[in-house]
């Protein structure tokens, strides 16, 4: 598990492109038969990819977190973006089709990830945040979610937002997680942009062709920066940073948030004329 530290917004004014990529971008999340996690000190979120092939992969970090088992004091969300697989939680198996999700409550001890077919492995993307209470584990099928339909083709941001870990779907301590799909011809995930001072966010961009690139914007509204991402790469977005992005074609991304509250619409809108 790699560790990333927090940064003051004034610091990144002096960062080169290489500095920004080293501190905020995670370039390789899914590696065969491997668990690839990143621990960010921004609200102590852990995120990453788990890609089992022939054998199951266990999530068993404990010493690194100073606890007896991974979810002793944490909760976790999972979305499968690969082939069919399953998750084994304390002896109970849950089937995970592509884009199915799951909320796993604090206190779950044994966590194993499996793929049904090595030729089409599952790709489990996880977000985990500190927790203070045990809420029930919930399997969340994408077919059961009624998406929010926002934007329009005229503004190039016609999109569907699928809320997986959200008060409308299941209870959690502070973790929120969901998936946004952009329609063909749309490329902006949100504009005008916003910040949310009370929550950080992590983005995973995927369903992108090899030549497609996403332009993730960050920084304070008057000091904007950008990162260029390929398929299945993730970026850390601190609370003081703007939240927006575009790409050379339509794409899908998973957003995960944690912080002071679980109010999805707790955003501070940024006027277009205030962007620099």
Short description:
The chain has one helix at residues 17-24, and strands spanning 2-4, 25-26, 34-40, 45-51, 57-58, 74-80, 85-89, 92-96, 101-104, 111-115, 124-130, 138-140, 148-150, 159-165, 176-182, 194-195, 199-206, 214-220, 223-229, 233-237, 244-247, 252-259, 268-269. It is mainly β and 276 residues long.
Largest sheet, order of strands side by side? 1-3-4-11-6-9-12
Q: What summary fits the major beta sheet?
A: 7 strands, mixed
Mean pLDDT: 95
CATH architecture: Sandwich
* CATH fold assignment: Jelly Rolls
Can you identify the CATH superfamily? Answer: Jelly Rolls
Fraction in helix: under 10%
- Per CATH, the class reads Mainly Beta
The end-to-end span amounts to: 35 Å
The low-confidence runs, each spanning 5 or more residues with pLDDT under 50, are none
The ordered string of helix (H) and strand (E) elements is EHEEEEEEEEEEEEEEEEEEEEEE
Which value, in Å, is the CA radius of gyration? 18 Å
Total domains: 1
User: What structural category arises from helix and sheet content?
Assistant: mainly beta
Q: What is the tally of beta strands?
A: 23
Helical segment count: 1
Q: Judging from the principal axes of the Cα atoms, what is the shape?
A: globular
Tell me what portion of residues adopts beta-strand conformation.
35-45%
């Amino acid at each position: 598990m790699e560790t990333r530290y927090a940064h003051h917004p004034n610091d990144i004014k002096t960062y080169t492109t290489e500095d920004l990529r080293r501190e905020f971008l995670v370039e390789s999340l899914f590696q065969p038969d491997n668990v690839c996690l990143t621990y960010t000190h921004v609200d102590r979120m852990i995120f990453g990819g788990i890609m089992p092939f022939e054998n199951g992969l266990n999530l068993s970090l404990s010493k690194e977190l100073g606890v007896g088992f991974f979810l002793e004091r944490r909760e976790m969300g999972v979305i499968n973006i690969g082939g069919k697989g399953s998750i084994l939680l304390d002896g109970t198996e849950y089937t995970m089709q592509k884009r199915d999700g799951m909320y796993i409550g604090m206190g779950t001890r044994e966590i194993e990830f499996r793929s049904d077919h090595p030729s089409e492995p599952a790709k489990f993307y996880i977000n985990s945040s500190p927790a203070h209470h045990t809420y029930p584990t919930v399997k969340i099928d994408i077919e059961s979610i009624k998406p929010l339909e926002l934007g329009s083709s005229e503004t190039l941001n016609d999109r569907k937002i699928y809320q997986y870990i959200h008060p409308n779907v299941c209870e959690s301590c502070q973790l929120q997680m969901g998936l946004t799909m952009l329609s063909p011809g749309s490329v902006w995930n949100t504009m005008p942009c916003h910040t949310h001072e009370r929550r950080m966010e992590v983005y995973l961009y995927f369903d992108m062709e090899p030549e497609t690139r996403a332009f993730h914007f960050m920084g304070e509204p008057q000091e904007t920066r950008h990162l260029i991402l390929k398929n299945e790469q993730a970026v850390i977005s601190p609370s003081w940073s703007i939240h927006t992005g575009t790409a050379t074609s339509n794409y899908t991304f998973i957003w995960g948030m944690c912080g002071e509250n679980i109010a999805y619409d707790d955003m501070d809108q940024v006027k277009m004329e205030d962007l620099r």
